[in-house]
Amino acid sequence: MQNILVNMTVNGEPISRETAPNRRLLDFLREDLGLTSVKEGCSVGECGACTVILNGKAVTSCLILVGQAIGTEVVTLEGLHGEDELDPLQQAFIDAGAVQCGFCTPGMILAAKALLDENEEPDREQIKRSISGNLCRCTGYEKIIEAIELARDRRLNK
Question: Which of 50, 51, 144, 151 would bridge 89 by S-S if both were Cys, CB 3.0 to 4.6 A apart?
Answer without folding.
Answer: 151
